[in-house]
Amino acid sequence: MKENIHNRPETVLEKIFGSAIHHKFGEPFLDAFRTMYNDGNDDVTAAAYTCSLFLSAIKSGFPTAKLHLFVHYIQEYYSRLNFDCSKYDTIIGLIGEERIKRTILADSNLKFAEVECTVKDVAEALDFYTNR
Predict the structure, then answer these.
(1) What global pTM score does this model have?
(2) Is residue 3 part of a domain?
């Protein structure tokens, strides 16, 4: 993990949203990554929020400029989790299809709502994270 004296991922998101983030935002990815890495550090949190923001952009109209602002910050101050497409099935299995169908995402007005996603959507979010 890079030494980080900057804002935690949650704080950066709250600044982007202008308010507190929904307590379940990023949760499916966060739980899966915590299980895979036996850790709940800020790198894990940053990865989970990156994937959730990507899904928010493609499924709910979350502003891509805000997505890229967050990703730029994460790239600057946090280490990347080390996984590739060979781990996607494991991550998706840890999330579970029922949770994928009931994912909390942010929309174009920065409001949170439950949105139905697919396994393909989650794989695209993982691609976005690993290719950033």
Answers:
(1) 0.90
(2) no
